[in-house]
Amino acid sequence: MKFPVSGWFIVFGVLMFSFSETGAAEIERPIIEHCGNMTFSYTRSGASLEVFDIPFMKDNSLWVITPNWKVKYYQVDAQKDLLQRAAIEEIPNGKKITIFHEMPPEYDCPFKGTQTFLLTRDNTFTATLDFTFSKEAPAVFEWGIGHLNHALLIGKSFTTTDDKQTTTAIIPAEA
Question: With contact defined as beta carbons under 8 Å apart, do 109 and 132 qualify?
Fold first, then answer.
């Protein structure tokens, strides 16, 4: 039995369309934004940042748990609409990406947070986390900004400021 080639392409095309339409709702698109010489992305694995196409930071994390890890009040993977609810805004000299960490009401989650990433054209990156916890219980808040590519920082100066002083130093080759 012979089938015309065009017939196979039509059947194959219909099957491909059916599979892609079925899976489309299950696959979340990552957030990818460019500003200055930086590329920022956010997926279920967290935030990543490249500077001059070189990986600088990856895989930030956010957990809210009991001190013994028996109860997980919040984890990013549990929030199904995380990426769809994110807000991306153009701001003077850059971009602002806001991630809303809030479970649906039926989960009765005591944690609500807003993670904000600012990217400016002069290649400045800022990350902040504002949150509330509405339960009278012990909790640990673990916010890891990400794994840094330390090789890019060796020999660079940095400044830290707290309520008592401002300190400027150089990052050494060995710690």
Answer: no
**pLDDT of 96-138, one tens digit each?**
999 999 999 999 999 999 999 999 999 999 999 999 999 999 9
C-alpha to C-alpha distance for 91 and 1, rounded to whole angstroms: 64
Q: How far is the C-alpha of 87 from the C-alpha of 99, rounded, in Å? A: 7
Cα-based torsion angle of the residue sequence 38, 43, 47, 52 in order, rounded to the nearest 10 degrees: -20
The alpha carbons of the chain give a radius of gyration, in whole angstroms, of 22
- State the average pLDDT for the chain: 85
Give strand pairing partners of 53.
Answer: none
- CA 102 to CA 110: how far, in whole Å? 9
Report which of 61, 161, 160, 34 is spatially closest to residue 115, judged by C-alpha positions. 61
Count how many Cα atoms sit within 13 Å of the Cα of residue 80 in the half-sphere of its side chain.
4
